[in-house]
Amino acid sequence: MILIARMISRQIIVCNVGIDDWIMAVAWIGSIGLLVETIIARKHGMGKVSISLEPADMIAILKDTLAIEVTYYVTVFMGKLSILFLYLRFTTHQFLRRACLWIIYFLTTYTIMCIIIVLAQCQPIRKAWDITGQVKGTCINRTIFFYSMSFKLFHSFLLPLSSVSHPSPVPFLTGPYPVTASFNIATDI
């Protein structure tokens, strides 16, 4: 609702809906998709002890999880991208603009890499939800991959806009300051 109100007010009052607004709308749609996928997985028994599930439900959960993973990466990417484009709209500082573009590049590369790994984790892909072991093929060590990504997710939680481990948080923590410091905002209320 708030996003819709923002889009309408930006169109009517400012007469300019920016690319950051459209990207945030895509992220919002992705978050709704993520919610729907989670509800579907829950209906198949996600969160229950695996021995209490029917084989068909276990297979459905594994397929749902694959969809959830891809949607999650895209949705988080879009949210971060929206904030980066918002910074690009506000700033005229060349250093911050370059830093934002640099982070967009690495964030895009990181997201594409994660999606490719998730979709190619097993060859053939149906081996990812093969609980019987009858499908011939190979899979990466998913435990190692997802533990390494969980560290990244933890890092992203602490520094919401980071896209690579160390250099990217610096522009986001310090970058908006020169722009916001120049705003004429009353401090005495």
TrEMBL record:
Q: Where in the cell is it found?
A: Membrane
Q: Which UniProt keywords apply?
A: Membrane, Transmembrane, Transmembrane helix
Q: Which domain of life is it from?
A: Eukaryota
Q: Specify the Rhodopsin domain's residue ranges.
A: 5-150
Fetch the InterPro entries from UniProt: Rhodopsin_dom_fungi, SAT4-like
The yes or no answer to whether the keyword Transport is present is no
Pfam assignment, any one: Fung_rhodopsin
Any single Gene Ontology cellular-component annotation: membrane
What's the protein's topology in the membrane?
Answer: Multi-pass membrane protein
Q: Any stretches that span the bilayer, and where are they? A: 12-36, 70-88, 100-120
Asked if the record carries the keyword Metal-binding, the reply is no
Q: Which family does it belong to?
A: Belongs to the SAT4 family.
Task: State what protein this is by name.
Answer: Rhodopsin domain-containing protein
